[in-house]
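Each field is set out underneath.
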Amino acid sequence: MKSYLGTLKIILLASLAVLAVISIIFLSQADKPNNLEIIEHVKTGLASQEIQTSDTKFGLWWVSEDGFSIINDDSLSVETKYFNCEADNITDERKFWTENANQQSKIVDAIMQQAGFEVNELNSSDSLEDLQFVDYVRAYERDKTKAVLVVNSDCWSDGSVDSPLYYSTSFSITDDFDVNYEAQSPYLIDLNLKDVVIHVSNVVDNWALINVNYRRSGHYVIVEKVDGKWIERFGGQDIISCTLRNDLKIPIELAPDCAP
């Protein structure tokens, strides 16, 4: 009888231990804010009288572990604008930009750390002077979620008359990286395209029209799939010649206009 009760006690204690672990797991999951909540935290953290914030959607650029850049379009985003950037143009010391970059990155770092994210070094700038991404970038990840803070280095305006000049910062977050990698990587790998992102504009049979974008510029390529591999047949910013289009038998849908 004592042996039975002892065994029963052990089983009960083990069950309670398992329940405690499960409770901890559920609590830890519940403590993780979702993407919408994170966007709100970031927007609130960055907002001030001098900084204008707005909800938007941007493409989130993420470099995979194998070195290919994946664009995650329509990612939940918040954009900030801080004005009077022309003061930096006068002194050429970028003091205003540097102060804001430091301040905003520290705020977002704290928010993301609290939300259980880790900094992804591969997608992050080494310092404010690091120009590998053109802009200053801080990247974060948690499980399958990717997030990026981009402090834009350009002083610009909306283009309208008398519109004020400003620096901008964007924060974007997505859960779609894995899906987008599967869709984009076959083209990137076959064409050995690195340091660029792509948008497949149109596919006709074994042909495809692809827009290729760098951080600030871009071009297009027309590719053909031969023996299971994509091969570039034409690329650039100019219109393809009618002779070359006809010789390569490129579908008219991919190049409706051509140079005589």
About this structure: The first strand starts at residue 51 and ends at 63.
